[in-house]
């Protein structure tokens, strides 16, 4: 047994006071005359013996009552495994309020049980102690130490949130909050179901802050989730079936059968079909999305799955342009084959200009620019084209046979890309077509068919720097490059080593290659705008910005909320940061003026919580190591008593106080009912 405040033991010296009172307590007697002295002696002897016995018992009761009263102030305890520290304490309690805590445990949501555990932890400490109540939201009001009463109020306000944090980040936040105070006795508690995908506390080593884990286990449930979806092509086309790939995951140990998938867009809900997913597997399904009008679309994929439902819907949004704008910059005469190719596809809007009459400010309006046999490229044009490609544009370059190599080399090195070298007057035939790359992928039904590949009467050489990240699209039989691709920033540079002139190059006569090549180049994109964002991942959203007068404040609005995101304007772009402001999955519109919607975005809940695999008690104990404590308590055990015993040992002051009252009552009974 040990004492929390041993200095109070000096008060045991007051035990001498009852003894002194007992020894010096003299009672005066009256003289009574009796005729028969023998009877008086018998009464006196009997009364004196009983009085002494009563007085001794009263003295013992007083001494014991006073001794146990002193011990109550000394606060004796029987220490447990953990060290007991005296003085004020700083306590941090993390309550996992993520979606997985909505699961049931004995018909009670885990979050309700977690809140009850948190209350009992706070109540197990004293009113002079300080507390932090932390959740997955990481709100500012949860970053400071508060009183016991305020901590209980914060616990009562907790609700389920879409946010989810790795527990290592939680521990860091707890330690940061505890360090803000001047209290040395610090302890942290984590109340969670300890899913495997968020529990990353391995071999906890900090001995200055006690870490206590309170696991809550739910009934194991089956779960099927829509993980993600993406369009197969970077640009969605009008009046065509646009393949949408959907990834559905089975997170249980049993095969899932007859999972129904449906899609809603443009005001209609269409069933896609049913699927069977093997246990712990992923299935990819393709949905053809028919687009009949240009403009903005919001769409929703859904499956039928119980009881976990937060990941059964996947929201996505996309835009469909009415036209793809293409600019052809001619060095001298236009190429009639090039113009015919673009004008033959109604989806393209073609503009042709001479290199001397260019308006650089209009470059961002085009998705693709073609340089057709320019003799030289000025430094100004080179800079604007590099900016165009970096910001997501596609640039196709056909050099002139009479090209001034110095200007082309300076232009290409700025990307950077491999540079043209001297003209080689030699007949060559293309022998290899890269059908694995997007430009020629899925163009030909039979890749092994005998295609008529282009040939040339001559070509420029091309340097071969390893750091230029070149991807050949067509190569000559001798290995020289005919057409190459470079990923530059958010866009692409396509570089031909041969002019487009039919006198030198037969490409324009190979329509089965030339037409799809131009089409796929125009719709390709080095940066594909995300069709959906994930709540809580603090993703940066990019939108177009047009210069306007007055105060510029972008706003996002959803079904039930409207807020101002963080915004940074850079040239013709505005970058938005939503942080923790999006709370509900769904669609959000961006606007400056309420009646003018600029963009639309879709947000989905984080799928981390979809995997309902939990650490068992022994696995968790082995993971965190010996410096962390695992508190396992049966549901019918008073949790506050367990916490109190862990923090203070088995406290005995209550028993001392009870015994004090008992002996005081015994003294009263002796004096009242034992008559002498």
Automatic annotation (TrEMBL):
SUPFAM superfamilies: Class I glutamine amidotransferase-like. It holds the Pfam family BatA. The keyword Repeat does not apply. Keywords: Membrane, Transmembrane, Transmembrane helix. The keyword Chloroplast does not apply. InterPro entries: Aerotolerance_reg_N, Class_I_gatase-like, Double_TM_dom. Coiled coil: none annotated. The chain crosses the membrane at residues 6-26, 56-78, 652-674. Residues 1-76 form the Aerotolerance regulator N-terminal domain. PANTHER family: BLL2463 PROTEIN. NCBIfam families: two_anch (TIGR02226). This is Aerotolerance regulator N-terminal domain-containing protein. It comes from Flavilitoribacter nigricans (strain ATCC 23147 / DSM 23189 / NBRC 102662 / NCIMB 1420 / SS-2) (Lewinella nigricans).
